[in-house]
Write a structure and sequence with these properties.
Two copies of one chain form a homodimer. Chain A is an alpha/beta fold. In chain A, about 55% of the residues lie in helices and about 10% in strands. The first copy, chain A, has eleven helices and six strands. Chain A is globular, with a radius of gyration of 17 Å.
Chain lengths: ~220, ~220
């Protein structure tokens, strides 16, 4: 589709309309509560597979929105996902996002404990931000560590489990899905191989936009 | 696939082997020179569509590698792509990467000229880094601006044209592909709707790793 003289916001609205139309024309049926997240992930990837791959525990989207309205921080496992989360949307809800992967303390702790930086970063985050939203788009080791922590009593507001990859990724997402369900922790996961920092950021942004809109219905976006 | 006790580097090697095997088992034939880029994009997305979508002008990969060995800077259109480019690999080749999108001067110039920040950032980059590698993963307006600049005489070392989206994106990629070909500017593009900051960073990283390896064959990675 070609749009002459469109602003970025015109382009985004037109894109979301195309996505909604193509989803409606297909046989895919998406729960109303989850539609904004699915649309935003497809917007970020142009990949309609996510209409099938994304799995939501009951009420996960609403839990995420409520947590953001209560200024819950978001923890990511990559600086790339952190860079992709909308700073104006975070500011509007007085939320913060953090990634500890590149901290020198984390690298030292990973070396000392013979673990990955991603796992060490999760350990640090679990100790310091136990009720945060965890948005994991890259490291399966972060998922395994988070699953262990949840098994041991950690209760994040929401887990976004969307690493991409070919090794340990499918297993990591299935493990954290089961652990979250059995412990009552809300979870949004991209089952299978696909995912990534783009997907982790897109899901966080969809929740931020929906929470902003719930707080201020005049600021209607594509949610 | 499950790998016990794998380091991130073991996991990456095993992933690249799986990708190479699945490509070999398919009917897809990829030019040897382009294989490392295709594999790394699939590694970053788990999406084998890129084996079809990625299009390379003749010698584009080698041009990119040579430019990086000559310390050519990389310009991105998002901080997300910038965050995804390997800092150790940049450092090894004494290259730099820049994104001007978030600069306050750029926002002011976009407002003053009634254009987008992406287009204003490209204008600034073209004036200050005319021979750079341009890696565009998000904004079709950046592609249109870059195509205009190339038409007017700009000669980047390489254009990586991989925005994702539903509006103006297919058109933008086709336009810059034609302009680059007619002006003799090397280009790697993801034709169609798919792409994104992840893809822009993955292509830049594949070139950085290949250039590092050419410079120092002992540092063999998956290229």
């Amino acid at each position: 589709m070609k749009l002459q003289h469109g602003t970025p916001s015109d382009i985004e609205n037109a894109s979301m309309q195309i996505i909604a139309q193509e989803l409606a024309a297909s046989s895919i049926r998406i729960h109303k509560e989850n539609a904004a997240v699915v649309r935003r992930v497809i917007h970020a990837t142009a990949d309609f597979d996510y209409a099938f791959n994304l799995r939501f525990s009951d009420g996960a989207v609403l839990c995420g929105m409520k947590a953001l309205m209560a200024h819950t921080p978001i923890i990511t496992d990559t600086n790339m996902a952190l860079a992709g989360i909308s700073k104006p949307a975070l500011g509007k809800l007085r939320c913060e996002a953090h990634c500890f992967m590149a901290d020198s303390d984390i690298a030292a702790s990973a070396r000392a404990n013979g673990t990955t930086r991603a796992a060490a970063a999760m350990e640090y985050a679990a100790a310091n931000y136990p009720g945060a939203i965890y948005s994991i788009g890259n490291a399966p080791t972060a998922l395994f560590k988070l699953a262990d922590q949840i098994g041991a009593g950690l209760r994040p507001a929401l887990v976004i489990a969307v690493p991409v990859g070919f090794v340990n990724v499918v297993e990591g997402k299935e493990r954290i899905w089961r652990v979250c369900l059995s412990c009552g922790v809300p979870i949004i996961a991209a089952m299978g191989r696909k995912g990534g920092s783009t997907v982790a950021a897109a899901i966080a942004n969809a929740l931020l936009y929906a929470a902003s809109e719930m707080q201020d219905p005049a600021a209607r976006g594509w949610n």
